[in-house]
């Protein structure tokens, strides 16, 4: 029996069959992605799909932390990297806004 098979049986005993189908740990074919990159990807996808438009205000750092289960520095890192790329523009005390939509 593999390690994952053992964990699936343990999880199904404690949490029910629903959770047993989800991978518990990243596999080599499924590398772990840092949380700040997940936040960046989610924001970029929302901009690309039109969910966020130029001038729209993003959620606060605290709201991003709650949504992604991360710390404030991690959320700020994602926003800072997108600001460096020119995707977002931050104004201290007012928030972070989308600057442009990619073609």
Please render the helix and strand layout as text:
Elements: H1 3-15, H2 17-20, H3 35-48, H4 61-68, H5 72-85, E1 88-91, E2 95-98
Antiparallel strand pairs: 1-2
Helix pairs in contact: 3-5, 4-5
Our count of helices gives 5
Low-confidence segments, given as residue ranges, are 1-23
Strand order of the largest sheet: 1-2
Number of strands: 2
User: What profile does the largest beta sheet have?
Assistant: 2 strands, antiparallel
Based on helices, strands and strand pairing, what is the structural class?
mainly alpha
Shape: globular
Question: What order do the SSEs take from the amino end to the carboxyl end, as H and E?
Answer: HHHHHEE
What is the CA-atom radius of gyration, in angstroms? 18 Å
N-to-C terminal Cα separation, in Å?
Answer: 50 Å
Strand percentage, roughly? 5-15%
Residues in helix, %: 40-55%
Mean pLDDT: 79
């Amino acid at each position: 029996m593999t390690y994952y098979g053992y964990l699936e049986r343990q999880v199904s005993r404690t949490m029910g069959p629903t959770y047993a189908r989800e991978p518990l740990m990243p596999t080599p074919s499924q590398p772990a992605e840092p949380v700040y990159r997940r936040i960046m990807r989610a924001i970029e996808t929302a901009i690309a799909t039109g969910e966020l438009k130029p001038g729209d205000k993003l959620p606060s750092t605290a709201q991003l932390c709650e949504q992604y289960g991360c710390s404030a520095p991690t959320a700020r890192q994602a926003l800072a990297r997108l600001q460096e790329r020119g995707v977002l523009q931050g104004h201290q005390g007012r928030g972070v806004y989308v600057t442009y939509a990619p073609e």
